[in-house]
Design goal:
With about 325 residues, the protein is of the alpha+beta class. The protein folds into 2 domains: about 1-170, 2,3-Dihydroxybiphenyl 1,2-Dioxygenase, domain 1, CATH 3.10.180.10; about 170-315, Roll (2,3-Dihydroxybiphenyl 1,2-Dioxygenase, domain 1), CATH 3.10.180. The chain has helices at about 15-25, 75-90, 105-115, 200-210, 250-260, 275-280, and strands at about 1-5, 5-10, 35-40, 40-45, 60-65, 100-105, 120, 135, 155-160, 185-195, 220, 225-230, 240-245, 260-270, 285-295, 300-305, 310-315.
Length: about 325
Amino acid sequence: MHQLLLSADLMVPDADHVADLLVTKLGLAGHPNWRQAFPGHPYVAHFLRAHKSLAVSPTRIEPQGHLDAPNAGDPMFPVYLHSIEDFQGPSRPQKTHATVIVTDDMDGVIKRLMARKQPFRLARLTPEMPFDRLWVGCTPEKPGYEPSVDGGLCIEFIPLGPIMMPDLAFSEPPPQPRDSKPGDMVRVTARGFLVRDLDDVLARLDANLDLRPGAPPTEIASEGYRVATIGFGLKHSATLDLIEPTQWDSEAGRYLHNWGPGPYYARISVTDLKAKADDLTARGVKFEWRDHSDAVGGALIRVDPAELDGAIFEFVEHQT
């Protein structure tokens, strides 16, 4: 039903600037054709890739910026947008416009929400976007977001067909990169999302959206948090890692109590982690090397958020 996490999203004032920053400092792949800006839909989005092949790397990195202009394509969306900015807090360094989940059963998603009498809204079809887009926690008459349906994840559903995934993406086992060089990025493996009450969020996702983790939450004492990992039909989609800090002074705990719930890390696998460290050094990018992280079961690189306008990016060794 739920096939993949479309992107690790960053809602930013200037999407072109952030896209250039991520390409220049991290080496993400960008292309003019992956920049989205439609007449009547006042926003700019870049769908950057860890690997150029969507078959290899289906989840994108999406800096998106919204313009202060009338939205003829979806007149209600500006109200929603301002409401989620308020919900996440104006000063939060990482905000999302939506946690976008791709489904191959939009009919089933809608019928489930209707049967449970949960609020949702469909954007009208336009020539530029002739497919259904569904936001939970709002209605046409009350387009502002509220978190009762999804526990604050700001979820949007879109259908699988319009994103035109290559057939190879659905092969088993998932495709691996060809002729990969040391330090090359492979795919986005995880999107971290901080929550205050993990059990409450999981109950809402299960009851309202048929979204649930593949295993019970795990406590990682060394990281000071509990985490539940939600996977998708496409096994090499990024997972959605829902994190509840258990220690106020852990890294995750301080972030939650500094900035509130919301997007946390985007984690990317690479073919040789030490080679990626050398690449970041050559680019003049500050980062922290961790010899071992219990969260990933091995070494981890965390890029200094100051390098990326506050965004948190991590690199881990690729596992085939």
